[in-house]
From TrEMBL:
It comes from Bowmanella yangjiangensis. PROSITE patterns: PROKAR_LIPOPROTEIN. It comes from the Bacteria. This is Lipoprotein. SUPFAM superfamilies: Cadherin-like. Pfam families: He_PIG. InterPro entries: Cadherin-like_sf (IPR015919), Ig-like_fold (IPR013783).
Amino acid sequence: MLRKSLLIASIPLLLTGCETLLQGAMSMGCALNAGPVLHPESLPAGRMGEAYSVRLAVSDAPAPVLGIYVNDSQPLPPGLRIEHQERDDHGWISGTPTRPGSYEVHLVALTYGTQCAGRRAERTYRLQIAE
């Protein structure tokens, strides 16, 4: 009877140890994953008053893409916006630029978290808009 009680009492401890081991293995796997990458590497120039459209893509994402966002401190030129459908691995910069200039634009793509916490891809672009 005592042996049976000890065996029953030790099962949760054994399972807890396995869970800790599995969590540690997942954490290590997450740390080794390089993370997602935002493409393209550079943006083509645009012209004020002319339609502009560039495809953005997220590669090597460990989970679906939650969103692609522009940093408010380094925004797109006036008249341009980001279009992205949640869970798609791509999006678009589109619109019609209304002001010429050289713009430094910072974009961030975020993924959902699964076994790993949500990941992010970032890239800063120089976008030229001619008159």
